[in-house]
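Dear support,

Our group has been running a series of protein-ligand predictions, and this particular one with 4'-deoxy-4'-aminopyridoxal-5'-phosphate is the one our PI (initials K.S.) wants archived with full inputs and outputs. We had some confusion internally about which version of the output was final, so please treat the block below as the authoritative record. The input we submitted was:
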Amino acid sequence: MVINPSVAELKKSATLKITALTKKLVAEGKDVVNFAAGEPDFDTPDFIKEAGKAAIDAGFTKYTPSAGLPDLRKAIASKLQSENNISLEGKNVIVTAGAKYALYVALFTLLKPGDEVIIPSPYWVSYPQMAKLCQAKPVFCETDEKDGFKLSGKKLQECITSKSKVLILNYPSNPTGATYDRKELEEICRVVKDNNLYVVSDEIYETLLYDGRQHTSFAALGGAFNNTITVNGFSKTFSMTGWRLGYLAGPDEIIGETSKIIDHTTSCACAVSQKAAIAALGDNKWQGQVKDIFAARRDRLWKGLDPLEKITPFKSQGTFYMFSDIRKTNLNSFDFSQRLLSEKLVSCIPADAFGKDGFIRLSFSTSDEQIDKGIERIKDFLSSL
Ligand code: PMP
Ligand code: GLU
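Confirmed final output from the archive:
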């Protein structure tokens, strides 16, 4: 066989595929309502763009140290200390080309072939595929609406075997928008420690939390730091998806080893983006404004969909996604999404990509006008069934 079986068996990313198809239809002039978007619809703030332009003009266009610019690693460490209560230093942070790569590097550092990775389900599309790339086995720990799509210590315990090595947590969650409070995390943490698991905690949507909820970082819990790799990035919170900048942070013992993977794969993250990221961390007023806008959009979409028969939206606690139950239509997720796009020009992500058939993910990262138009079209579609 020419192709490495670990690669041959990989699935394409449904989120990237449908996002690209939606963008193509829009570029062709089709009046598509884009509820598929996995990125903020806002432009990168001007002060960040200016820092990027200044870096180019100053000729800051060469390789940086592979773990990232020392000033950026320091700035990330002080953000993690002051906002997330994680005590660490710049040397505990590695800057990567996007949080997606940080996740992959974190998993690749920890896993050996045959290890099990516990993934609460529904899950973000890339986690099981990344586990497989590491020749590890994804083990899904099912959650449902009754539990608010959340893992509990008890459920976690049931998924643990002698091969379990890593638990991937993602909160607020893509795709469900669910998040955990400190007490819930502490319960999970006790099970993690009792079983000597490692946690890869993907907190990329941490600033997008609604109704006064506060984010607690897993690594900030008592005794969790040495077993946790925190992953985050600039894509969602600063609307910088195309700049490809993320990071991972954790104890010396793990992070020291991780940087070797960067040395021999990407060399470093984009120099210009790293300068822009230093500027981004210097001013988080923008994040507050964006969060208020997203909170209002979430309410708008939820109020529009909730009264409809045949669809039950789950009111997101964070992120810009609304997970919705479409089982009353008797269509599977894929057919529902395909028909909604072809018959009504509304794109969304079928949640079988997230391990939950019978559900769809609607992104409210779009304008109020588009949200209203989308609700009307979904209403028409449901009544045509
Ligand atoms: N984690 C989650 C849950 C995400 O939704 C995304 C968005 N693609 C990422 C990680 C990766 O973000 P990026 O690579 O753009 O930093
Ligand atoms: N995180 C986004 C999403 O879930 C972007 C697409 C991707 O990186 O997979 O749609």
